[in-house]
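User: Quick sanity check before I run a bigger batch. Here is a single chain. Can you write out its predicted 3D structure?
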Amino acid sequence: MRYSAALLGLGLLALGTFAHGGPPPKPSVVPLKWELDFEYHPVQSITVRVPGEKKPRTFWYMLFSVCNRSGADRLYVPGFDLYTNTGQVLGAGKDVPTVVFHAIKKRHNNPLLMSLTAITGRILQGEDNAKDGVAIWRDFDPKARRFDVFISGLSGETVKIKLPVPVVVVKKDENGRPVKVTLNELNVTKTLQLSYSLPGEAASRTQTKPRLLAKRWVMR
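Assistant: Done. Predicted structure follows.
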């Protein structure tokens, strides 16, 4: 449900319209709710030989650190979604073998590095309780020349919006079966958006570092 709603929200943002034809909501300049401190390294690639596969595969990843100075312990549930300019959508950790995480951990020699699964949970206050993590995506469309990374879980700021028209989405029920649900409202959350370009040709892009074009907060 959350994933489908996120895609819906992004589509409405692209159209620039919500209820009554108004503009999409914007996050506050000064945080209104709790917010975690977030530092990140540039997106980069790694080629890993996955057990049982003949050819090595390319993956992309982002190292990050998160620290809680919000004044209270928080539940940290990170989300890292990558969208290419060719329309491909990748969620971090999906179809990523665990051997890739271990290869990244070894490359950066960080015994405290945590996967998204391990880092999810309560984060205590203070620098001593800061956590190092990594978001990993499988390789994406070789035709892509730009991509955006949307990072959620960093802010408690949310807004409920009324959709201009009801929208039918697919979610799973308590038995894991897909069911259709009609949405009239949508909750959007303050989310960090990082926009990148991929210079060079597709064949050599693993040797080229993506270039950061923009950084901004959005409601998604």
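The chain has one domain: 2-219.

User: Great, the batch can go ahead then.
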